[in-house]
Structure prediction request, 258 residues.
Amino acid sequence: MDTFKDALGSVMDGCLKADFHMHTVYCDGADTPEEMILSAIEKGLDAVGISSHSYTFFDESYCIKKDEVARYIAEISSLKEKYKERIQVFCGVEQDIFSQYPTDGFDYVIGSVHYLKLEDRYIPVDETEEILADAADRFFKGDIYALCERYFETVSLVAEKTGCDIIGHFDLITKFQERHPLFDERHSRYRVAWKKAADILLPYDVPFEINFGAISRGLRTSPYPSEEIVQYLRDNGARLILSSDSHRKEDVLSIINP
Prediction:
């Protein structure tokens, strides 16, 4: 199979074992693309995708640098050829909804929301629970559910804005909920908010990932999205794909590998 869409379809059909969400030294990962690919080979994968965080002009602390994009694409291209007899390799990008960097040079796109744009500031939703609590106080008069509603309103636009092939960690805002809960996920306002976002995204027929990244970091014991959301997505015909969201070679498919 020659294209990412072919490979994705084979994963959906259960014919291909793959991990398409991982990060390397090009952004906030610990290991090189080659080390991640070798780990995937060792774990018996048929296909692997490297998905660097897209360049975000307002926060360069974690993402690929603009002057590194061409080298990143060239290196993945070289590794595709080097390992073509052992594994299928794809060059991807995890495109944040607020990134302005073009995606046409990549094999595939994971569409994600890591920030809320509040007035003239970009507030990360996955950095610390204190940042989220402060944002609720500062921009929503302490109403954490209003912040959650804004988050899911933003998520609802991710397919349209990024043209993604996979929807990343749909409820990333719950990253700290197990250790330091800021809101009740059973609250009616929260549930209405995520259902509205899901209903907008479902017609795009883009797979939602089941993301294990917070588990490997020791922040959660269950993946994103929550069991309730996954069941809702399944009941409404969504396609789902497992992703490690690994930032170290040891975590490539480490938890989701059967």
Observations:
- Residues 156 and 196 are 8 Å apart (CA to CA).
- The chain is about 35% helix and 15% strand.
- The chain has a mean pLDDT of 96.
